[in-house]
Design goal:
The protein has 68 residues and is α+β, with helices and mostly antiparallel strands. The chain contains two helices and four strands; from the N terminus they run E-H-E-E-H-E. A hairpin with a 2-residue loop joins strand 2 and strand 3. The protein is globular.
Length: 68
């Protein structure tokens, strides 16, 4: 059986809104995000499944996930 093409996602982080609370990092089931200093950054975009838990849990609306 042929493997289905993996859907790619785009993650936007507004560094002005991110306060580095680390909630999105903790909720990401595939460890896509990491704290870089006082702001969250993308560590492994290819691992993103598009579950949007980071987006939903961010208390400051600093992260959004979109299909590419």
């Amino acid at each position: 059986m042929a493997e289905a093409a993996k859907k790619l996602w785009r993650i936007e982080i507004d560094e002005k809104l991110c306060k580095g609370c680390d909630i999105c990092v903790d909720f990401c089931p595939t460890h896509v995000l990491e704290l870089k200093g006082t702001v969250v950054g993308v560590k492994d975009l290819e691992a993103c499944t598009g579950c949007q838990l980071c987006d939903l849990r961010c208390p400051d609306f600093a992260i959004q996930v979109f299909p590419r």
